[in-house]
Amino acid sequence: ARQCFHALKLIKKDCLLSLRVSRCASTTSVPRITTHYTIHPRDKDKRWEGVNMERFAEEADVVIVGGGPAGLSAAIRLKQLAAEHSKEVRVCLVEKASQIGAHTLSGACLEPRSLEELFPDWKERGAPLNTPVTEDKFGILTETSRIPVPILPGLPMVNHGNYIVRLGHFVSWLGEQAEALGVEIYPGYAAAEVLFHEDGSVKGIATNDVGIQKDGAPKATFERGLELHAKVTVFAEGCHGHLAKQLYKKYNLRENCQPQSYGIGLKELWTIDEKKWKPGRVEHTVGWPLDRHTYGGSFLYHLNEREPLVALGFVVGLDYQNPYLNPFREFQRWKHHPSVQPTLEGGTRIAYGARALNEGGIQVI
Questions:
Q1: How far apart are CA 236 and CA 151, in angstroms?
Q2: What are 190-222's pLDDT values in tens digits?
Q3: Residues 147 and 99 reside in one and the same domain
Q4: Which residues form the ETF-QO/FixC ubiquinone-binding domain (predicted)?
Q5: How many distinct helices (H) and strands (E) make up the chain?
Q6: What predicted TM-score, i.e. pTM, was given to this entire model?
Q7: Domain span at residue 69?
Q8: Residues 82 and 176 in one domain
Q9: E strand residue ranges, the chain
Q10: How many structural domains are present in the chain?
Q11: Arithmetic mean of pLDDT, 218-231
Q12: What integer is the mean pLDDT of 138-161?
C-alpha cells in the first residue's frame, strides 16, 4: 500500500508539472480575439507598410446610418420637407445588409399612427399591412396553466387598430418609397467609423474596408472604405451600435443618466396546421418559465400572409440575477407550455433570429 501511495504521488507531481508547461505554452500561442485596427493599429503592423490608405470622400447634406424603420422614416420625411420648401437636399443612407430589410426580423405589431403621418395614402401605395388585429389575449403563465388577464381600455396591451406585419417586408417597402423620393440608398455598406472635424463636431462616417484576411493582413484586393461627409449625420443603427458607443465615449454621453438596461429578443417564424391558424390574433404572456426576479415575456402573432404563419418570440432582460439562466433555453421551455405547444404541433420553423433591445426608459437618455 505504501508503494502504491508513493507511485500515485509521483504520477500527480508529473501531471501537475506537465499541466504547468502546457499552460505556459498556451499563453504564448493564444490567438488574437480580434484583429480590428482599433485594437491593433495598422501603423505598428509591418504587413501594412506601403499600402495606400487614402479614402475617396463624398459630400451630402444628410447622412443616415441604418436602414431600419427609424432611418428610412427620417430619410423619407427629410425629402418630403425638402419638396414642400422647394429645396434640393441630398440624403444618403447606408445599410450593412445586402438589401434593405434583409437584417430585419419578421414579426411585429405596428401602431400605424406615424405611418399615417408619413404616407396618408399608404394603402393605395401597397404597404404590406395585411393583418389587422382582431383578437387580443394576455395571460400569466404558471408551470402547468395559464391565468387569463382582462385587457382594459387604455392599457398598452390593447392592439385593436394595429397591424401584425412581417417587419422585413415592411422595411423593404419603406426602402422603395425612399428611393422614389430621391434618397440615395447604399445597401451592403457598413458604417465603420465616425469622422470628426477639428473642433470636435461630427463630420460624417466612413464605411468598412474590404479585402482583409482573418489575421488582419491586407489582401491583394484590399480597398479602403468610402467617406461620407455631411452637414447632419443621423445615427439610426439600432441598439448598442458600435458608432453610438464611439459617440458615448467622445462626448461623454453616459455621464448624467442612469445605466442603460438591455434585453435579448429571440424570434421565430413558423408555418402551422391551418386548423389552428387564427389570422389577426395577438397573444402576450408573462411569468413562467421566468421567475419573479427576471424581467421578460412572450408574444405569439397569427399573420395573414396567404399561408398559415405565426411569429413568436421571447424577451429576457439581460439584468437577470441567475448566472446560469440561458435565455434561448427558456424560450424552448416556453414553447412546450401546455397553452403554447398545441399551436406549434405539426408545424415547421422556417426562420429564426435574435437581437438586442433597449429596455431603459427616458431616465437613461
A1: 33
A2: 999 999 999 999 999 999 888 999 888 899 999
A3: no
A4: 262-357
A5: 7, 18
A6: 0.84
A7: 57-129+165-238
A8: yes
A9: 57-65, 91-95, 108-110, 131-132, 135-141, 146-148, 163-165, 184-187, 191-196, 202-207, 210-212, 218-223, 227-235, 262-271, 281-287, 296-304, 308-317, 348-358
A10: 2
A11: 92
A12: 90
